[in-house]
Design goal:
The protein is an alpha+beta fold and 212 residues long. It is built from six helices and eight strands; from the N terminus they run H-H-H-H-E-E-E-H-E-E-E-H-E-E.
Length: 212
């Protein structure tokens, strides 16, 4: 146990020397963010429901290209604030951020390969490489905290699928946590000390699994 801890400390010390953030790993992330993950999936479900209802007010042929994405992002921000209070905030460039248990979580639609759909800017490349120096947050206390993405995909039927938390380092997806992982029975909410499984009523076709 002591040896494992020392190895972890050595690894993070090496990462700091390289100008990189602390390393995130699959098991610790699931454990440390188990409560937040349940709320995040519920937040996504609530935002999706409100977006679907709101879009009924606009005829399909008159909707602007970005209307649906803007409505979804706005509802997600609203429910995120309701569920997480001051842990949720807007960073620089109006990026929606959740800071929880030593992690920074950003929100983005994912492409078919599971990567965030971003324009390749210096900041985006810094996020995908877990660099410490990042022109997004005014607070230098955030420099060490691993950055995660909470995202979703859309299938060919225009359905929202695969809500998941992903960790990217060195421009590579290292792991993801989906609703399937929440359904394992290990991570549940409790009501009156009785476990209640967390599983949004969404179509879920998760393709990305824990990296080997």
């Amino acid at each position: 146990m002591v040896q494992t801890q020392l190895l972890g400390e050595d690894s993070n010390s090496s990462r700091r020397m390289q100008g990189k953030r602390l390393l995130a790993d699959y098991d610790n992330c699931k454990l440390e963010l188990s409560k937040e993950l349940g709320l995040l999936f519920k937040t996504f479900e609530s935002a999706l429901k409100s977006t679907s209802e709101d879009l009924l007010n606009y005829k399909v042929q008159f909707r602007s290209r970005t209307l649906e994405a803007s409505i979804m992002q706005s509802y997600f921000a609203e429910y995120l604030q309701a569920n997480f209070a001051n842990k949720a905030f807007y960073g620089k460039y109006k990026r929606l951020v959740l800071r929880a248990n030593g992690y920074l979580i950003l929100f983005k639609k994912l492409n078919s390969k599971g990567y965030p759909m971003n324009i390749k800017t210096v900041n985006v490349q810094s996020i995908l490489n877990q660099n410490q120096v990042l022109d997004l947050f005014a607070d230098s206390d955030y420099n060490d905290e691993p950055i995660l993405y909470f995202g979703y995909q859309k299938n060919r039927f225009n359905e929202y699928v695969n809500p998941q938390l992903i960790y990217i380092d060195d421009n590579e997806i290292k792991f993801s946590i989906s609703t399937d992982d929440m359904d394992s029975g290990l991570y549940v909410n409790k009501v009156d000390d009785k476990p209640v499984g967390v599983s949004p009523t969404l179509k879920n076709n998760t393709n990305i699994k824990k990296a080997n």
